[in-house]
Write a structure and sequence with these properties.
Structural class: mainly alpha
Largest sheet: none
Oligomer: single chain
Number of strands: 0
Helix content: 55-70%
Shape: globular
Strand content: under 5%
Number of helices: 5
Length: 80
């Protein structure tokens, strides 16, 4: 998913934060998710990176989640 961004400038212009900041956020989220997994629960269909990208995209553009979801799920139109 992250390989579609050509360089750090493109990443920053599309997402709104630097790539290093993004990776630090992913690291923190992975630690938190590891603690949460100890409790149990259903596995996520999206990776932490994808979920964080969706959140940052929403905060930057305030698009509807339906529009954002089309980028991350192939079956959105068929399931709604």
């Amino acid at each position: 998913m992250l390989d579609k961004y050509k360089d750090e400038n493109e990443f920053y212009s599309l997402i709104g934060i630097k790539y290093k900041t993004f990776m630090k956020m992913v690291e923190i989220l992975k630690e938190g998710e590891a603690k949460q997994k100890q409790i149990g629960g259903r596995p996520n269909k999206l990776s932490i990176e994808q979920r964080l990208l969706m959140t940052l995209e929403y905060w930057k553009e305030y698009s509807t989640y339906r529009i954002i979801a089309k980028k991350y799920f192939n079956f959105v139109e068929n399931s709604w």
